[in-house]
Design brief:
single chain, 211 residues, alpha+beta, Jelly Rolls, five-stranded antiparallel sheet, 4 helices, 28% strand, metal-binding, apoplast
Amino acid sequence: MNMMKHIVLFIVVLYISNPSFSYANDICVAKTNINTPSGYECKPQETLSVEDFVFSGFVPGETINPFNVKLTVVSADKLRGLNGLGLSAARVDISINGTVAMHVHPDESEFLMMVQGKVTAGFVTSEKAYVKDIKVGDVFVFPKGQLHFVVNSGSETAIAFVAYSSSTPTFQFLDDLLFGKNNLNTSIIAQTTLLDVEQIKKLKAQFGGSG
């Protein structure tokens, strides 16, 4: 099955996962990319165009250190026609030995479909780890709020398409939370994780944290 067929299947999955997608009276195209506590302001219906419903950036991207991954997310701030539809999408490019690091989507479930290569994917609950090698044509579902990851376990760049059950998905990466710019005190991290202080400092230097 070539990549075009995968993309068509991916679009069909997005459609059937949210039946309201086709109802014109549910359309609320975001007027700007500014999301307020009450949501996006709707663009007047008479000003809508097909460009409000098209995104052209699902293309290969250069993977980024330290995890050698490129994540291209298409949510309501980039594709304003997604606003209010309860879905969004992403393209994931993972270089050899790369990974999508441990993270959580607090309010969204995730549907991942492989289109190139092989990965090891999984999520962790309080009782069990669910981990499996998946290849082209396989899909993996990550339930809402579960800590999960994707590791390239093949011999080529891995590519997957992802759907989220929200038009404004949220991401909480474990490494960024612990070692990033929130500047959580090193001694607190050491006491609560049993990690070595020097290793914590090295990780903070990698992810921009201090303190």
